[in-house]
Design goal:
The chain is an alpha+beta fold. The protein has five helices and 21 strands.
Length: 365
Amino acid sequence: MRRIPYSYALASLLVLALVIWLAFGDFQRFQTDPPESSSTESEALPRVEVMVQQSTPFVPQQIIQGQLTAQRETILRASVAGFVAEKPITQGATVAQGDTLLVLDNEALPERLQQARDELAVAEAEFSGAQNLRRRELISQPELLRLQSALSASAAQVAQLEKQLNDTRPTAPFEGVLDRVQVELGDLLQSGEEWGRLIDDRRLTGTAWVSQQQVGELSVGLPVTARLLNGSALTGEITHISSRAEEATRTFYIEATLDNPDRQRLAGGSAEFTITLPPRHVHTLSPALFSLNEQGQLAVKHIVDENQVAQTAIELVSADIERAYVTGMPDPLQLITLGAGLVAPGDTVTPVPANRQEGGYAPTH
């Protein structure tokens, strides 16, 4: 009897196995009733990790760049023309209000003023006598008016010369430092020409520009700290916020008044202003937990009653690369820290307490 080769026998067995599988292996798909599913699978809910968090007080701040100027500063100009005769105050000296800062050649103004005063005395005597004569009708009314006009002219001449004499000795309009003197003895000053600068830097004015988004949180009276390039700081408060934005930049101009008791030489320099805003209660979250709702607003998913998912729009108070401070969330907050991207608002889930720190924030107990 001839023996069947081994390879033929193996091939025959494989063909027989294939026929059996085609006949009975896919029989399940032709059944009229679907297979029964286990009750455990039908009742399974998505699992999300949840952290319970309470709101905490937070003091927001705005940091802006700006400049410092002296609260009072004026350019000194000559009111009359004349040669510089004296410089009673040296440059850089501190002066009191009313101190004489410069003396100009008066061109014999004292003598001219005395002559004008004498003429005024004569005009007053003539007018007084004319009034007595007029009461007795010994002179006409036009003559009395002429003498009255002469009296007024003499008085005006005296006032003008007195002002000119005072203008040759300009005085300090306020207490401060004579920061600059630009003339020397013998120099000729013309009327309106600049010759010096007076600065009162006991208090400084900080000026800056803030954006449309920032200005809504500011108000007059908020505390301000100015940090200087040398590392020191000055304190003060906001004293002015413009009511209209600059057209070119759409930014608002603000001013802050800062105390400078040591009279540090800071006017004209730059500074970083930290404005302390009113305190608020916030939730501290990782920015990675943010999502967008249907209206395109920043929102956060969390758990509400009956383990349902909710998505609430938030207001971003402050943020950095590690954390964000937000308001608008319920308190306490059942925050979804893991699995938020796999569930939608309204879904019922199985919350699992977070057992580790998420995003740098431990759960509140």
